[in-house]
Design goal:
With 542 residues, this protein is an alpha/beta fold. It is built from 16 helices and 25 strands. Among the domains are: 207 residues, 3-Layer(aba) Sandwich (Rossmann fold), CATH 3.40.50.12780; 100 residues, ANL, C-terminal domain (GMP Synthetase, Chain A, domain 3), CATH 3.30.300. The strands form five sheets. A nine-stranded mixed β-sheet has the order 2-1-11-10-12-13-14-15-16, sandwiched between helices. Strands 7-6-5-3-4-8-9 form a seven-stranded mixed β-sheet, sandwiched between helices. Strand 19 and strand 20 form a beta hairpin. Bound molecules: adenosine-5'-diphosphate. The site of adenosine-5'-diphosphate (ADP) has 20 residues, from strand 14, strand 19 and strand 20.
């Protein structure tokens, strides 16, 4: 029997209309690369989305289902593009500016973008590949001076494009299962693959992440969106801020630790998101230059790679700021789990509590997780049995865009994450490694993530990345690349072996160490193990 409830579409227009009707007074603040600050309200942004919708349909001829690319940092116009493009039934394709030229060319041609909106500061990256782009009819420049010169063909200025448009626009009826956004994986495992989000998945992800047991966002918050809008829709934050009525602070390219701290102070930001690399940088910058007053920042939500126990402890002890770990993938919209304590943990010691918070956490409502062992069996939830993490849910990918990649999905409808994890009796998932990064030494698995977390708790170490290298006797063995906090410091291999022996058994402890200036990072700031392996293979890791 069908329920007798309205068939009300969960679309990005529903989010925008809600944000405008209830929170039109809330603010969107952008710190631009030249140091200027721009502030306007959700209500102002709403009107500009409608102007944009008129321009897209009437001036640029964009139709339902067309792809429109963005190549931009986090700022007000980029938020307008999120809503304006999907609002007319087109698809907002956010292009990762940090990919290689070859990958960028590939994804623009693969997605068949008709128009690309590009930041003036990023134009040189597209100029190089423009002649190779097969489908792009117009480039629209954002934040470009009137006398800006470029070799890009068919350019328009964003402000000119929307200036004379009406701010009245009737949104078309959109099926909530239609595509709203497209984001490619960062290609750490081959060519980037497209993940096509739907209006419904975007809506459900945002409403869930906002709830207290999840991201905990409300109309009392001012949120800094550090995660780039070109990476998994900034974790859905431009949507959840409109639903929760949180002020949105956008840093554009101001992502150096000092610049982030300045914005945190100036805007009295109390919540933020970001990958661990960013927060590690902010932590060390705060240690070097402690702020005169306590920051308003209460919580930072971290994902993308592991938030270590030592960073959680450091931030909390030194600055009273709480790190909250979340896990996700481009394929899971991205957020799938978050690690928060519950009343059942009240009686635990502080150390035990931090150990739980350093896990990747419990699934969000609407998401299911399971661990499948090498022999194809579903593992018990004992916190010990390792296997591949599989996921299904209301915002999990069902297949890749234009690719028949069956090996990523199981026959019974789960997505295979490629992460090796455990799940404990209370449902807390812990990532041990990615399948391809696990080290198998003498037939025993060694978790590179666990070694890295332990090494990064050493007072002299800033970053540590562990990879497997060939070994005659053990087949593989771990090699640790170490970045010291202070380049004048020294630390011996023996000291590190001794330090690790408190937590690890002998065979797990790396005997090989290299001391480097910086760990190579991927386009989204993760340790680039593929690159570290390449440097090692070419004898350049010294
Ligand atoms: P890519 O797959 O190209 O690296 P994603 O951003 O989609 O790009 O990365 C998803 C992967 O990042 C996950 O499969 C997992 O390995 C890792 N990851 C994400 N969040 C965490 C976390 N909190 N702790 C450890 N690893 C994480």
């Amino acid at each position: 029997m069908k329920g007798l409830i309205m068939d009300y579409p969960l679309t990005t227009n529903t989010i925008l209309e809600y944000g405008n009707s209830v929170y039109h007074h809330k603010k969107i603040i952008t710190h631009l690369p030249d140091g200027t600050r721009h502030e306007y309200s959700f209500g102002d942004m709403y009107k500009r989305c409608k102007k944009l919708a008129n321009a897209l349909t009437q001036k640029l001829g964009i139709k339902n289902g067309d792809m429109v690319g963005t190549f931009a940092w986090n700022h007000g116009p980029h938020v307008e593009l999120y809503y304006g493009i999907s609002g007319i039934g087109a698809v907002c394709h956010t292009i990762n500016i940090r990919l290689s030229s070859h990958q960028i060319e590939y994804i623009i041609n693969n997605s068949e973008d008709k128009v690309i909106f590009v930041d003036a500061t990023l134009v040189p990256l597209l100029e190089k590949i423009a002649p190779l782009l097969e489908t792009v009819e117009h480039f629209v420049l954002i934040n470009a001076a009137q006398d800006f010169t470029t070799t890009l063909p068919n350019t328009l200025h964003y402000e000119d494009l929307i200036a004379d448009q009406s701010d009245h626009f009737e949104w078309p009826a959109i099926n909530e299962n239609d595509a709203s956004g497209l984001c490619y994986t960062s290609g750490t495992t081959g060519l980037p693959k497209g993940v096509l989000y739907s209006h419904r998945s975007t809506f459900l992800h945002a409403t869930t992440i906002m709830s207290p047991n999840a991201g905990n966002f409300s109309n009392r918050d001012t949120v800094l969106l550090i995660v780039p809008q070109f990476h998994v829709m900034a974790w859905g934050f431009p949507y959840l801020c409109l639903l929760s009525g949180s002020n949105m602070v956008l840093p554009s390219s101001n992502l150096q630790p000092e610049a982030i701290i300045k914005i945190l102070i100036e805007e009295k930001v109390n919540k933020a998101n970001g990958v661990p690399t960013i927060w590690l940088g902010v932590y060390h910058a705060l240690k070097m230059n402690p702020p005169k007053e306590k920051l308003a920042l209460e919580e930072y939500l971290v994902g993308g790679s592991a938030l270590t126990k030592s960073l959680i402890q450091g931030f909390e002890k030194d600055f009273g700021i709480k790190g909250v770990q979340a896990w996700g993938m481009t394929e899971t919209s991205p957020l799938g789990t978050v690690s928060r304590l519950q009343p059942l943990h009240d009686s635990l010691s502080e150390d035990e509590k931090i150990t739980i918070r350093a896990k990747q956490g419990t699934a969000f409502p609407g998401v299911e997780l399971r661990i499948v062992t090498d022999d194809g069996k579903v593992a018990p939830t004992d916190g010990k049995t390792m296997g591949e993490l599989q996921i299904k849910g209301a915002w999990t990918i069902s297949s890749y865009f234009k690719t028949n990649n069956h090996e990523s999905f199981t026959e019974d409808g789960w997505f295979k994450t490629g992460d090796v994890s455990t799940i404990d009796q209370d449902g807390y998932m812990e990532i041990k490694d990615r399948t391809k990064d696990l080290i198998k030494s003498g037939g025993e698995w060694i978790s590179s993530v666990a070694l890295e977390s332990a090494l990064m708790a050493h007072p002299k170490i800033k970053e540590a990345a562990v990879i497997a290298i060939p070994d005659e006797k053990w087949v593989e063995k771990p090699l640790a690349s170490i970045v010291l906090l202070n380049s004048d410091d020294t630390v011996s291999d023996e000291e590190l072996i001794d330090f690790l022996s408190r937590e690890f058994v002998k065979y797990q402890i790396p005997k090989d160490y290299v001391y480097i200036n910086e760990v190579p990072k991927t386009s989204v700031g993760k340790f680039d193990k593929k690159e570290i392996r390449r440097l090692f293979a070419e004898g350049k890791l010294t």
